[in-house]
Amino acid sequence: MSQTANRPPRTPWAKQHPSLVLYGGLPLSLVLWAAFTLGIYFVFHAALGIQTTTPVAHAAPRTRHARVNLNIIINQPGMQQNWPAYAPNKLVVPANSLVTVTIRNYDLGDTPLLKGSPFNTVQGVVGGVAYADGHTYAALAPEKVAHTFTVPQLHINVPVPGDTTTGKPYVEVSFTFRTGAAGSYYFQCFDPCGTGSNGFEGPMVTKGYMVGTLIVQG
User: What is the pTM of this model?
Assistant: First the structure.
């Protein structure tokens, strides 16, 4: 008879090593439980259309846009008669912004620019154009200029016509330019609209008339 017939029955491995079953199966159970939980989480989020991450919005910086009004007047009380003048004589605008200037020229009539003068062209403004009584222009004929609005340090120049097309007692000119850093500049007329043999005396060199201050504030 075979000796195997008398061998006692073998004890199952799990019963021989109960601690290994306990501590070895526990991590596997935890992994399976975590995977199941995450699966349920993402299924519900997908079904409900919920984003699992929050998008970061980067809003474009908003450019400030300021508007200022300026008149060119003549024969005002308390001022020299027949001398044109900017009113007001000081403009304050924000830095790093768009600035739209509207000029009403009440000093009608033209004082031709000198031959070869560069001040009959619009320079340094948005789009390279200005608007006179609603009409776009990039330059004026030298003999059709009454004044200029010129900021030499900012390379801005806008010739102002002296002939109205609306029947109003003024010509309205508008244009837009961009400011940079804060600073103080001057604006001036470079058309010979003053006194003297060359037209560049009197109001052209007298404080409070055809020279003004542009303050760019930060």
Answer: 0.72
